[in-house]
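Sharing a chain and its predicted structure for anyone who wants a worked example. Both blocks are below, sequence first, C-alpha cells second.
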Amino acid sequence: MADAQWTLKVKIVAIDNTVVNKKSKWEVGDNLTIQIEPHATVNMFKQRMGLIVMAHPKHQEVCFPEGVLLDDITKLSDVPGLTNLAMPFLSIKVPPEPVEALVELSEDEGLFKGDEVEAPESPAADVMSKELTDEEMDKQGALKSEAQDALEDGDMDKAVAKFTEAMMLGGVSAMMVAKRAEMLLKQKRYKAAIEDATAALVLNQDSAKAYRARGKARRFMGEYEGSKADFSQAQKIDYDDGVAEMDDYVKKRTAKIAKRAKQDAAAIAAEMAAAVAAAAEEKAYAAAAAEKA
C-alpha cells in the first residue's frame, strides 16, 4: 500500500529574484503548500516546489528545522522531526561558488640564470643569399665536416666556430642556421639560439627544426607562451617524440600561470570592491551622525 501523502507548509525565508522566473510573484514570508509522499527525497521535494516558485532545484536550499540544511538525497521521512503538516524553510538563491585553491607555482629548476657569451657572428643578408663558386662550396663542405667531427668529439666551441666559418662564406640555408641553433642550445647559449632559429624561420617558415630549437631555448629562458607556440607549430609540421615531454611541461606551466594571474586579479578586484563598500558605509555613517547632531 502506498504511503499517504504529507502536506507540508513551506515558508520562503530568502529569495534572489535573479534566479527565479520573472513571472514568479513569490516573496519572502510567503507560504506554499506542497503535497508529497514521505518516501520522496529532498531533491524530489525541490523539483515539485520549483514548478510552483519557478526556480531550479540547484538554486533552492531546504532547511528543517530552520538553519539545518537538508541533503538532496535524504528521504523526507528520514528527516528528524519532519512529519505531516510540518513547516520546512525554503531559501532561493545562487549557491556560493566553490572556493578554488590558489594555484601554487613551483620554481622552474630548469630556468637558465647564468650569463651568455656573445652570440657568434652571422652573415649579412646579401652574403646569406650569395651563390657560391665551386671552390667556395668545397671549402664550405670541408668546414662543415670539421664542425661535425668536433661535434662528435664533444668540442662544442670548435664545432660552432667551424660552422660559423662555413656560414660566413654565403649560400646559407634555413637548415644550416637551424643546425647552428641546435649547437648553441647544447652550449646553453639560449638567446643566440633564439636569434638563429628566428633567422632560419625567415628563410623557411615551415622549418620544424627551427621551431623546435626556438621552443627549447624559450623554455629555458622562461618564455613559456612563446615556447608553447613554437612546439605546437613544430609538432604540426613534423611530430617528434623527443620534445613531447618538454612540450607538455610548457603547456601545463602556461596554464598554471594564466590561472594564477586570473586568481590574483580576482583577489585584487575583491579587495577594491570591499574598500569601496567600506568607504561608502563610513560616509553614510558620518552623514547619519551629522544629521542627528
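Comments welcome. The radius of gyration is 35 Å.
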